[in-house]
């Protein structure tokens, strides 16, 4: 399952706010004034954070909109921690953790949750592996018992290894192998970062390396990474403080202690292995795709002061209608879609990307010329305008307000931040940090990343369509 990052949740909510779909209950504070004015001065979720004696960090968010709870356990290890030659092992292990533990039989975890009217699932990202359940509030003890049991004593039965390997290979085939765009973006990422760089390997793994994973490899990864000191638990919902802490301490406090494990991630390459990738795919029936990606710092690596300004830059450059790329390419009739992406809440380096889907009758070279000319114009003008920065901050702040409504939003955002080593205030006071971003800071971030950073570009084209010459800044 695809993880929901804070950036993704707030971006989606900001688009809803821009479209005028903010719920009335959120549109005004109790006194009748718009709440965005003071949103930055109070925590988004009001989470309580404690560390149990065994090292597990636990965050509790009390929400009583409905009599349900969301129970999320994060391991501070994702695809970026896969050992060389064993890409996909974190994801493989995620699957195997549904094969039973000391007190829960194989497959029984999900059956028990379903019998209680709840749902459960898991996901692997580059930074974390997460397991979650949504259940009626009185069933918190059940899922806490089963999840803590799984962390303490997962069986990972060797007899079920090969059947699950085939499930994963089929998953890879369906999600990546059957999709020209998924294959292209997988290859593009490897071309930019290196096929065996932690950032360049697919989270699901290269096919030959999935086939090479052995039972002892899975056991070694589990024993090294699945320890309380290397995990985060976040629970949100209709449970009160004292009762909650007693229940969680009883269940999760019994898991044997274990330390945090440092992430030994390589720095970004000093030269892009393959700066230009062009692929023609005969299966492509829709539009082509153009992408440009830059190495970028995050809140945990590189010039961290640029992380928040890059969030604003992403929005004003390619964050939906009104963004610079949208006006230059979609409103002009050259493209059917544009976008920009960046996530600063990652472990180690990130990337800043723009993508364009041209109209079928538009020459690829024209699209690349206009897209890169828009980036160059921003740089040549010394950055965006004050009005652009204010608009982006306003829309993204509205997204933060809308994020309060979802039961799973707080666990995913808080757990993801804590698991990469960021303080809880990173999430709780994100609107405050955002509102502090200035035009000059956005301009400096644009110069450092888009103007001076290493980058790669690529095209996915239908069969027979010639690749345009690369446009460099």
Automatic annotation (TrEMBL):
<feature type="domain" description="Peptidase M16 C-terminal">
    <location>
        <begin position="213"/>
        <end position="396"/>
    </location>
</feature>
<comment type="similarity">
    <text>Belongs to the peptidase M16 family.</text>
</comment>
<dbReference type="InterPro" id="IPR011765">
    <property type="entry name" value="Pept_M16_N"/>
</dbReference>
<feature type="region of interest" description="Disordered">
    <location>
        <begin position="257"/>
        <end position="278"/>
    </location>
</feature>
<keyword id="KW-0732">Signal</keyword>
<dbReference type="Pfam" id="PF05193">
    <property type="entry name" value="Peptidase_M16_C"/>
</dbReference>
<keyword id="KW-0482">Metalloprotease</keyword>
<dbReference type="InterPro" id="IPR001431">
    <property type="entry name" value="Pept_M16_Zn_BS"/>
</dbReference>
<dbReference type="InterPro" id="IPR011249">
    <property type="entry name" value="Metalloenz_LuxS/M16"/>
</dbReference>
<protein>
    <submittedName>
        <fullName>Insulinase family protein</fullName>
    </submittedName>
</protein>
<dbReference type="Pfam" id="PF00675">
    <property type="entry name" value="Peptidase_M16"/>
</dbReference>
<dbReference type="InterPro" id="IPR007863">
    <property type="entry name" value="Peptidase_M16_C"/>
</dbReference>
<keyword id="KW-0862">Zinc</keyword>
<dbReference type="InterPro" id="IPR050626">
    <property type="entry name" value="Peptidase_M16"/>
</dbReference>
<feature type="domain" description="Peptidase M16 N-terminal">
    <location>
        <begin position="58"/>
        <end position="197"/>
    </location>
</feature>
<feature type="signal peptide">
    <location>
        <begin position="1"/>
        <end position="27"/>
    </location>
</feature>
<keyword id="KW-0378">Hydrolase</keyword>
<dbReference type="InterPro" id="IPR006311">
    <property type="entry name" value="TAT_signal"/>
</dbReference>
<keyword id="KW-0479">Metal-binding</keyword>
<keyword id="KW-0645">Protease</keyword>
């Amino acid at each position: 399952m695809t993880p929901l990052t804070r950036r993704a949740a707030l971006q989606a909510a900001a688009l809803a706010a821009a479209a005028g779909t903010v719920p009335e209950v959120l549109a005004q504070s109790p006194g009748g004034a718009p709440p965005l004015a003071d949103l930055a001065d109070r925590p988004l979720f009001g989470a309580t954070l404690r560390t149990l004696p065994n090292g597990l960090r636990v965050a509790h968010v009390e929400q009583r909109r409905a009599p349900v709870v969301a129970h999320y356990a994060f391991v501070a290890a994702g695809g970026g921690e896969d050992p060389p030659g064993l890409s996909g092992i974190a994801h493989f292990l995620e699957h195997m953790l549904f094969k039973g533990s000391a007190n829960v039989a194989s497959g029984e975890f999900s059956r028990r949750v379903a019998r209680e009217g709840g749902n459960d699932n898991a996901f692997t990202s580059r930074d974390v592996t997460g397991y979650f359940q949504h259940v009626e509030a009185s069933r918190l003890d059940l899922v806490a018992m089963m999840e803590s049991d799984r962390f303490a004593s997962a069986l990972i039965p060797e007899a079920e290894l090969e059947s699950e390997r085939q499930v994963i290979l089929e998953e890879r085939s369906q999600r990546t192998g059957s999709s020209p765009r998924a294959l292209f973006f997988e290859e593009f990422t490897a071309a930019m970062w290196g096929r065996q760089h932690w950032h360049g390997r697919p989270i699901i793994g290269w096919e030959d390396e999935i086939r090479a994973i052995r039972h002892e490899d899975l056991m070694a990864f589990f024993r090294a990474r699945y320890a309380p000191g290397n995990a985060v638990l976040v629970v949100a919902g209709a449970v009160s403080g004292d009762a909650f802490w007693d229940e969680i301490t009883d269940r999760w406090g019994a898991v044997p202690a274990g330390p945090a494990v440092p992430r030994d991630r390589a720095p970004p390459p000093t030269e892009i292995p393959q700066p230009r990738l062009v692929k023609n795919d005969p299966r492509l029936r829709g539009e082509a795709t153009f992408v440009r990606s830059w190495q970028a710092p995050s809140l945990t690596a590189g010039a961290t002061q640029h992380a928040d300004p890059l969030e604003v830059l992403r929005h004003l450059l390619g964050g939906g209608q009104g963004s610079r790329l949208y006006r230059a390419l979609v409103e002009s009739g050259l493209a059917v879609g544009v976008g920009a992406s960046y996530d600063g809440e990652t472990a180690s380096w990130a990337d800043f990307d723009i993508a364009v889907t041209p109209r079928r009758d538009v020459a690829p070279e024209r699209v690349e010329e206009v897209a890169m000319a828009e980036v160059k114009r921003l740089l040549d003008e010394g950055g965006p305008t004050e009005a652009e920065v204010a608009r982006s901050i306003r829309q993204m702040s509205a997204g933060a307000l809308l994020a309060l409504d979802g039961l799973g939003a707080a666990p995913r955002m808080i757990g993801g931040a804590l698991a990469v080593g960021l303080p809880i205030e990173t999430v709780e006071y994100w609107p405050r940090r955002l509102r502090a971003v200035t035009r000059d800071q956005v301009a400096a971030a644009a110069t450092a990343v888009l103007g001076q950073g290493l980058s790669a570009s690529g095209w996915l084209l239908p069969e027979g369509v010639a690749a345009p010459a690369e446009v460099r800044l």
